[in-house]
Design goal:
With 148 residues, the chain is of the alpha+beta class. The chain has 3 helices and 9 strands, in the order H-E-E-H-E-E-E-E-H-E-E-E. 20% of the residues lie in helices and 39% in strands. Residues 69-138 form the PrcB C-terminal domain.
Length: 148
């Protein structure tokens, strides 16, 4: 009976793990992708609706419209005002697209700097809380997106 349970357990583990795929980013940096940071008012309406249901907690989202791919990353509810998001990179690796962003806290020297990389973050506010997120627009790709 004990052997039968172990064999059954191993079979179930193989079934579950057989459907999983681990993707790793290549160590040698990939090719920089051309992207733009989307102004909050220009995020596709359906994507905005989906984000509204997820913004309380950190999230990542992808949305395709025609030949464009929209990639969003949110940092959930923040209890203070003054946050910014820096886009550190968007690269195409051999098998994946890699998006790197950083949440910058209030009073950070970097939140004071001007520039597109931090200028177009999306934000919903309610009282003293903020829900910062950023949406990138790029050419549609069949490759999966990973966030770092």
């Amino acid at each position: 009976m004990r052997i039968k349970c172990r064999v059954t357990g191993v079979i179930w583990m193989l079934i579950f793990l057989g459907g999983c795929q681990v993707m790793e980013k290549e160590e040698a940096g990939g090719e920089m992708l051309e992207y733009s940071i989307v102004d909050e008012k220009k995020v596709p309406a359906e994507m905005t609706e989906r984000i509204a249901g997820m913004e309380e907690t950190p999230f990542q989202i992808m949305y395709v419209q025609g030949d464009r791919l929209y990639v969003g990353q949110g940092y959930g509810r923040q209890e203070m005002e003054g946050y910014a998001i820096r886009v550190d990179g968007c690269t195409e690796e051999k098998d994946v697209i890699c998006v790197q962003t950083t949440l910058l806290g209030p009073g950070s020297d970097e939140t004071e700097k001007d520039g597109e990389e931090m200028g177009n973050i999306c934000m919903r506010e309610d009282g003293f809380s903020q829900y910062p997120y950023v949406v990138l627009e790029m050419a549609k790709s069949e490759k999966p997106v990973i966030f770092e």
